[in-house]
Every structure is written in C-alpha cells, then in structure tokens.
C-alpha cells in the first residue's frame, strides 16, 4: 500500500529524456517507484491524458512579505510551481532590526511596487534574525522556499544609516561576513545584490555603496557553503552588463560559487547587444565560471494607475515627482491645474508613440465602463481630445482609480526570445512573483512557456522546457533531490495537460491585506500540484493542507572551499 | 583582470576607496591632460555622470561615483 499513486500519466522526468508512460508511487515525501504499479494507494491521482513532471522552480521572486500571510504564494503554487526563491535584488525581510523596518518597507514599496498598507496590515513584525524569520514563515508553508538574503539588508544590520552613505570598514566587512554565515546556517540559499535599484528617497540602495572588496568578502563566505550570488546588473546597457558578468565570473572562479544575473531582455532593437552578452556568457562558462543569465518567458506588459507610483514614469521627472511624492488630492490638483497640465503634456510628448496605444482597462464609474478595452486613441477621438489628456481626464473622473495597460513594451520578439530561452546557458526565470502587483501579473510564466514557446512556436520540446524549469534550476541553485522524477527524489510534482496549459487571463483581485488589489492569473490546464508528497492544490478543490520546506535545508551542508 | 581566451571587451574599472573623477583620470589616462581625461571619462560614463542630474534629490552630488559603479576607461568598441 502506497501513500499516493499517480496513474496513467506520461512522465516527463525533468532530465530532458523523452516522455514515457508510467505510474508514480509516493511514500511519505519521497518518490519510491516509477513504472507499472498495481498495488493500491491511500490516495490516487488519475493522470490519463496528462503529463507528470517535477514541480517547477521559480528562481526570481519577491514573495518575502506574502509568505507571512499566505504560505501557498498564491497563485504560484496552482501554476505548478513547487519551489520559489525569495529575497532577490538585495532585498529580504531578514535579518532586520526593529528600527529599520519602515526603511525596508519603503524600499520594497519603491523598488518592488508593493503597497505600504499590505505591510501595515498583513505583517506582524516578530522577528529580527534570519533564523527567526525562517521559523516564522515555516508555519503554514505549503510551497518550498529557497530564501536569498539581501545584501542591502545585511549592510543595514551592520552599518545602520552609514549603509546608505559609504564603503564599509574592515571590521564592518568582517561583521557582515559573520551575519551572512548565520543566515546561510539558518537556511539561506545565497546572497542577492543590486547595482541599479533606488530606495524610497530615490537614492541608491545600500548594496550600491559597497565596493568590490566587500562583495568579494561576502562571496568568499558563499564559497564556504557553495551558495549562490544573485545580482541585478545595469541590464539596460550591454557594456555594463558584460562588465558585471566579468565581475561575477571572477567571483565564481575564485570562490567556486554559482552566480546569476537578472533580468536580460531581448528586443528587436537590441539583438546585437544580447548576442554580445551571450557570447561573453559562453566564454566565461568555457573558463569554468558559472554566470547564469535569467530570462523571463512573458513579454513586458505594464499596467498602471496614478493611485500608486509606477516605475513606468520614472524617466519623466515632472510626472514622477507628483505621483511619487504627492497625496491623491495633490495629484488630482496637479492634473487639474492648467499650467502644470501643460508641463505634463509637454514632457509626455517625448514618449509620443506610447500613449495612443494604451488600453483603458479598469474604471469604477458607470459612465466610463463603455470605454473599457478601448485604446486611448479611440477614446480621445470619441471625446475630441488627445490620448495623454484623456488619460489625465479619466484619472480625474475615476479619482485616480483608472487603470491603463501598456502592452508589448518589449521582450516580445518571438524568434529572439525563443532562441534565448532555449540557449543551454540561459536560466529561465525572473518572474518577479509577489512584486509589482499592480503593474503586471507574473504568475503563469511557466504556463506561457508551454503554451507559447513549446506549443505555438515549437521553439523547444516539452521535455527540454520541463528540464529548464526543474532539474536545471535545481542544479544551478544547488537544491538537492528536487527537480527530477526519480526514485528517491522528493515528491514535488506537477500534473498538467500539455495540450491546454497556459497562463490564463490577467485579472484584478482584492486579496491583499489592507483591502489591497493586485493583478493575478489563474492557472489553466494544471490538474494537481504535489509538494513533499502531499497534494497541495488541485484544479477541482483548490488549495489543500500541505507542507513546504525551506531549501536547501535549515542546516547548511558546508562544502570544501 | 586580464584572462586568456576571453575576447576583448570595453575596458572598465571598479573604483577603489576614495576614487574621484580626478583620481581615476590621473591613474587610468595619464597620457592625457587632466581636463581632457575628465571630459573623456565623463562622456564614456553617462550612467554615472548623469545620475546626479536624473535623481531628484541627490545629496553630495559633487562626486557621484558610487563605490559599486563600473567606470569605463575607453569608448565603446567599434562593432
Ligand atoms: Zn527582483
């Protein structure tokens, strides 16, 4: 008698090997047999007509806060994702002294576009150390979490305000190394840092005040554990990205650690730049360095309203100053004032081609429902005005709760993106799950990989796509015993219909603490998701009790340096 | 760090403690006059040089080089 048997499915085992028909038996949290299974089981999943794969691993998320109120990281789990990496981009919620809490919330709000109210109402701050944070999220965890610790946060812990002003002294660097060791001992999968982000005052985040010496010292600690370094490079420029990946390569070789940088976008106008970056990636891998570029599957689509400051307006100072620092009343006053309005219109003209294409996607008033789904060009024509003015007017009429969608802003050249995703040295990821919740819905990037790049474009086979987001990811991140359907491996499993899986429609839901909203996508074509041998989600019954773990393990296995 | 088997890419440095435009100019471009060297460095490093202008409330805007910046010491390579 087995605990669980998944019968009649096609096994795509994550190794890249061809699919084959087999049943999969699970006892406890382990896969114990794959083949023809006649014995009974306490619980059964009928996978006829479906594929059975390892659960997906999402290497770039910001679920740090959401895990405090939602141990499933909804809806990621329902899309087949069984492990998430949190704490990317230099930001994690621990270690964190009480006096720095609001500073960190400000950074999450600015950089990851997460609402302040959600932190206020969804978070009970009862931890300071990394280990206490892990204990805290472990209660009620249904998805596995491989948590990075953020460099900016470690700097704040050790240097306080000086973290945002200067390089560290030798003593401070030594103390940071000690803190990082404690985090790795408590289960951190690695360290994240950022070379681009700005805090809530629009000043560089603490990690940007670190010199190369400090990063090297921290990387040496990662080397003691064989853990990962994640960075956000200056991704908008190929020369800068190459300089960063050279820096990473030296750290990887010197300390024998895996490194990864994200994002890397490909557009019609930067094909050469991406080719240069990938050439360098190949050269560095050939030397033995591990420098994994992370590439997302979905195109860049950004929604915004003027109720929350959108990074879309970052490069338009007149707009951004108002929406970043103004109260709703001040923003509306600025939009109504004729002088100010003409300044806004003038600045917007720099992005002339963008505005007519924006789609009006959400309004509260009955009067404006008729425009939903139309472009600003269409609405402007109907109202006898211009697209930018219509955007301002609709925002005033909706008291700022008018939402606009800018779709196809990049990363949408199918051939180029497909080639990049299939590249053996590209790490598929960078979903940003849990962040930018009012700008776009990242959930379903895996469904999109299968629907768009496997099914529609045939840019890669089902088997290689599964490998890319399971065993490849586990190998890059040093997560043992996951990512493959093999006897003895942990039973993190996704069962889905390869003919119908997709990312689902983006929708606006009210499920964020503090009566907040976010964009999500429901899973589509996924049947059952199993975490650690327990059924964690089914299409029929939704989320179930299940037990996720903190990976790669609370007790770090030190590797020989 | 120069390494075998790597193709040539645009040369850059990572600043060390106390680096300012002048210090970098004298160290990396000693064959040029200081003014010339500064002008070149700044034109090659708009991501650093223009940051102060782009940010809205930059303190200490005098030396905008951050300890983590990549500083190019030559123009983009011809492609
Ligand atoms: Zn991120």
Report on the structure:
- The complex is a heterodimer of chains A (561) and B (79).
- By secondary structure, chain A is α/β, with parallel strands linked by helices.
- Chain A has helices at residues 66-69, 101-112, 116-122, 130-138, 151-159, 170-185, 212-225, 238-255, 271-286, 317-325, 328-336, 338-348, 376-383, 387-397, 414-422, 445-456, 462-468, 471-477, and strands at residues 2-11, 20-27, 30-35, 41-46, 51-54, 56-58, 81-86, 144-150, 190-194, 228-232, 259-261, 291-295, 302-304, 359-362, 403-406, 427-428, 493-496, 506-512, 516-521, 526-531, 534-538, 542-543.
- In chain A, the strands form four sheets. In chain A, strands 1, 2, 3, 4, 5, 17, 20, 21 and 22 form a nine-stranded mixed β-sheet that branches. Chain A has an eight-stranded parallel β-sheet with strand order 6-7-8-9-10-11-12-16, sandwiched between helices.
- The model of chain A is unreliable at 554-561 (pLDDT under 50).
- Chain B is built from four helices and two strands, in the order βααααβ.
- Chain B has helices at 21-28, 34-44, 46-49, 51-54, and strands spanning 12-13, 71-72.
- Chain B has a two-stranded antiparallel sheet.
- Chain A binds chain B through residues 166-167, 195, 198, 201-204, 207-213, 215, 234, 237, 239-240, 242-244, 246-247, 250, 272, 276, 279-280, 283-284, 286-287, 315, 317, 320-321, and chain B through 1, 3, 5-7, 9-10, 12, 14-17, 47, 54-59, 66-68, 70, 72, 76, 79.
- Bound molecules: zinc ion (ZN).
- Zinc ion binds next to loops of chain A.
